Amino acid sequence: MSCARSFPPRLCVFPPVAALVGALFLCLCLAAAPAGAAGEAPREGILLVAFGTSVPEAEAAFKATDKAFRAAWPDAPVVWAYTSQIIRKKLAREGRPVGGIAAGLAQLARDGVEVVRVQSLHVMAGEEFAALARAVLLDVAKHPGRFKAVYLGRPLLESRADAQDVARDVLGALAGRRQPGDALVLMGHGQEKGRADLVLEGTRQAFQTSDPLVFIATVEGSRSFDELLAELRAHKVRRVWLQPLMLVAGDHARNDLAGEEEDSWASRLRAAGFEVEANLVGLGEVPGIAERFVEHARASEDDLTREPRKE
């Protein structure tokens, strides 16, 4: 190729092939870099929020849940928060501190997290879940722009499908141990104001559709022990399995449900002539339950840093 005479010859000399290749490679990298940076997913972090427990034996449920979330998000930090101040103070005195919601969110910010998935580990959306949501919203308002998004995952039992899945998990875990004719009694926590009563009734229906000899009552709320006793007698069962419908087999399970005191459910059932077997396993220890919480965390589109989307 020849050059026009008006141009200096040095401007028309082509660089070596290797240099051309190198320049082309550099251009391609520079062109691709912005697209890659723009498409890179923000770093996620998990905040698992539970009421808490100070019973060492009950922590197996938390460990199983923690393991499931770390497997689902292997590159994300997983931080725990307990909502009970009494339990947090007790654990701090024992040298096993667990922070609250504000402390958990601050830790994730220090870890460089941009998107937070706050997952409730409550069984139903009652008073404790309402307090959790309020605490997260207040912290988000106090620290605007700290995170790109803060998603709130719903409790374990929210839908008919949830109840059916949990019933399948719980009954499957007892398969081979319960004999035909044995009743299964699940103790829920319940609440004085009854915010989750309808969820409890729907869950009860789902269990009894799967197995008519499953009964649910609560420590507080509308489903009392006296109603439970009447149901058991009406079905003429003789042997009763007791199990908590709570994430952990903590104080309520070990005292109110299966304790040796005369006012525990186990003692009152024995006094009424029933044979009693206590299965002190929290829901978190039941295979499949931790994955239900993971599913709720993945499914959440409730970004608390944004105005609710209007259709």
Furnish the topology, listing elements before pairings.
Layout: H1 17-39, E1 44-50, H2 59-72, E2 78-82, H3 85-93, H4 101-110, E3 115-120, H5 127-142, E4 149-153, H6 160-174, E5 183-188, H7 197-210, E6 214-218, H8 225-234, E7 239-244, H9 251-257, H10 265-271, E8 275-278, H11 289-299
Explain what the structure shows.
The chain has two domains: 44-157 and 288-299, Rossmann fold (3-Layer(aba) Sandwich); 160-283, Rossmann fold. The longest helix has 23 residues, at 17-39. Strands 2-1-3-4 form a four-stranded parallel β-sheet, sandwiched between helices. A four-stranded parallel β-sheet has the order 6-5-7-8. By secondary structure, the chain is an alpha/beta fold. It is elongated and about 60 Å long. Helix 2 packs across helix 11 and helix 6 crosses helix 7. It contains eleven helices and eight strands.
**Unreliable spans:** 1-15, 17-21, 23-37
Percent helix range? 40-55%
Number of strands: 8
- Helix and strand run: HEHEHHEHEHEHEHEHHEH
Total domain units: 2
**CATH arch. level architecture of the largest domain:** 3-Layer(aba) Sandwich
How far apart the termini lie comes to 64 Å
Query: Largest sheet, if any?
Result: 4 strands, parallel
> What's the total helix number?
11
Q: Helix/strand-derived class?
A: alpha/beta
Mean of all residue-level pLDDT scores: 88
Rg of Cα set: 28 Å
Provide the spatial order of strands within the biggest beta sheet: 2-1-3-4
Oligomerization state: single chain
Overall 3D shape: elongated
- Kindly estimate the percentage of residues that lie in beta strands according to DSSP: 5-15%
Give the CATH class of the largest domain: Alpha Beta
The name of the CATH topology of the largest domain is: Rossmann fold
